[in-house]
Model the fold of this input.
Amino acid sequence: MTFARFAQRIDGLNYLAEQMELSGSRVRRYLMQIPFCDKAEVLEKHFDILQKAYEIHSLPENEPALMQLRHLFTTVHDIKGTLEALKQKQVLDEIELFELKYFASLCRDFRLLCKRIDFMSQAPMCLQHVFDWLDPDKTGTSGFYMYDSYSPSLAQARKAVLATDPEKEPESWNRATDLVQQEEWSVRKTLSEELSKRYEVLQNNFDQLARLEIWLAKAALAVKYGMVRPQVAPVLSIEGMVNPMIADILVKSKGTFQPVSVTLHQGPCLLTGANMSGKTVVLKTLALIQALTQFSFFVPARTAQIPLVKDVFLVVGDKQDYYKGLSSFAAEMLALDRIMDKIKKGNRFFVLVDEPARTTNPYEGTAILCALLAFMEQYRVMSLISTHYGELNTAVRKLRVVGFEGEKAVGRIDPTSINQYMNYSLVEDKRTSVPKEALQIARLLGVDDSFIKRAQEFLKKNNHE
Done:
């Protein structure tokens, strides 16, 4: 599973990719092909590299070199076609030879800058020998020319062309120019054969420049959002997690994102809370942090202990299935069925489901929810499932969003400022019923009082029944 596939499924992942300082589509394509990693030893090595890059970004004296690196990344040509020709042992043309000489020159510049910021572990390998092959006259420039010094035969053939008048001796001149072309082809063939022996080094350097840019971009992203290095651990425990995409949106409206802390164990956990209490945001942020960890990013939190899983499933409404003509309930049920089928086959997963069966009647919806909880308990799947259904006959662990703090509200409140009265913290909850705050919030929002009273009458009637 690649970053690109996860970005389609996990809200906020693509947003963070867009915030990364990458030079262009070539490196972005490389980022999108990074695989989801569930090997602790590999991730720890990656986090060590990222930690070093983070420390480099944190030192003001490194900024000039980092600026030069950012500029240098923009000058890297996409030589994928040239490398493929080299791999196939084709005879390169002069443009392709120029690309390789220019690339070798760039690698030298990258190594110098990596040395300045003490990041040689991620520097490309030295390609001075490649540069020297393509610069026999030792000009030191990155431009390529078919120098006479490559071949005495080439030099002699060129002299013959210059010594022949094409108007007076057209046949002789044509033979001479044909010979020059043959000699140039011979030189290109020899150079191509030598360069093909260095294909793996050239290809690795091309990939390494993309990796280097991505490490530095990840570090810059971590500095920008105050991200921390996650610790691989058996139990998920996150303090002060933040959703960067939503936080940025709130900043534009002069709001702030309230950090949330959560601990999850193997098995299901039920998340309750009134509407507008941020349950969906909690689910999306957890999925984002899990994905970031296993794609070797730092995470937006104060501290984060993350268990590794084989896959992350976030079910908050499958729009793709909606477009296929399925109802929201059908799309949701099919998504859950696919997930349960994978769980039965083994492996460790992280499942997050937002109010399952909310679009069906409460009686059957509650039954579906309880069945889902029982399934997750049976297979000991780390899962967080939100709901608004009350009176649940289940013994699973429950977390509740503290929610609306009405005592802070005086008179009618502005709908755009309701977040000021919400407490998004999660607390353990032993109750069987869910919070009932909807009518209180509706009244404070200024909804017609007669409508509120009628709803309260229906509540009283149902309670008596």
Summary: The beta strands are 231-232, 236-241, 260-264, 268-272, 303-306, 311-315, 349-354, 382-387, 397-404, 422-428. The mean pLDDT is 90. The first strand starts at residue 231 and ends at 232. Residues 246 and 368 are 31 Å apart (CA to CA).
